[in-house]
Amino acid sequence: EKGTYPHYMLKEIDEQPGVIRKIVSAYTVEDELTIDADIKTALSEADRLYIIAAGTSYHAGLVGKQYFEKMAKIPVEVHIASEFGYNMPLLSEKPLFIFISQSGETADSRQVLVKVKELGYKALTITNVQGSTLSREADYTLLLHAGPEIAVASTKAYVAQVAVLAITAYVEGKSKGLDIDFDLKAELGVAANAIQTIIDKKEEIQQVADAVLATTRNAFFIGRGIDYCVSMEGALKLKEISYIQAEGFAGGELKHGTIALIEEGTPVFALASQKAMSLNVRGNMKEVVARGANPIIISMEGMEEADDSMVLPAVQELLTPLVTVIPLQLISYYAALYRDCDVDKPRNLAKSVTVE
Ligand code: F6R
Question: Catalytic residues per the record (predicted)?
Answer without folding.
Answer: 351
